[in-house]
Amino acid sequence: MSLPRLQMTVRRIEVLKLRCAGWTRKEIASEIGVSDAEVKRVLADLYRIAGVTNAVLLCAWAKEKGHITDVSLLVSVLRQHAALPPLATNQGVPASVSYPKKPTGA
């Protein structure tokens, strides 16, 4: 018996974009109005779909597949996991780039 094919749903894409913007599971759960366990399940589905085991590889896969188009999203996750220094605006990332902002005071 084979597993049903996992597809990219609106919820999975929403969680993917927020995760690749550097949001935590708890922040994502609060933003979209679901439990932390639900976000964890969605992320596990995404890891399975992408065939990866961590957020950095997941976001690289998402960029490659066109689910995220802004490289600053990927950089934010890389920075979170590898303690990279912030990018200056003269290093190829325009100041006008917009992506989901993390909530403050969460």
Furnish the topology, listing elements before pairings:
Elements: H1 10-20, H2 25-32, H3 36-50, H4 55-65, H5 71-82
Helix pairs in contact: 1-3, 1-4, 2-3, 4-5
Q: Tell me the strand percentage band.
A: under 5%
Question: So, CATH architecture of the domain at 10-83?
Answer: Orthogonal Bundle
Overall average pLDDT: 76
The CATH class of the domain at 10-83 is identified as Mainly Alpha
Helix content: 40-55%
Find the count of extended strands (DSSP E, 2+ residues).
0
SS class? mainly alpha
Poorly predicted spans: 87-99
And the CATH topology of the domain at 10-83? Answer: Arc Repressor Mutant, subunit A
Q: What is the rounded distance between the termini?
A: 43 Å
Q: Give, in order, the helices and strands.
A: HHHHH
Mind describing the biggest β-sheet? none
The CATH superfamily of the domain at 10-83 is Winged helix-like DNA-binding domain superfamily/Winged helix DNA-binding domain
Global outline = globular
Distinct helical segment count: 5
How much is the radius of gyration in Å?
A: 14 Å
Structure description:
This protein is mostly helical. It has a domain at 10-83: Winged helix-like DNA-binding domain superfamily/Winged helix DNA-binding domain (Arc Repressor Mutant, subunit A), CATH 1.10.10.10. The chain contains five helices and no strands. The chain has helices at residues 10-20, 25-32, 36-50, 55-65, 71-82. Helix 1 packs across helix 3, helix 1 packs across helix 4 (55-65) and helix 2 packs across helix 3. The longest helix is centred in the middle third of the chain and has 15 residues, at 36-50. Mean pLDDT is 76; it is low at 87-99.
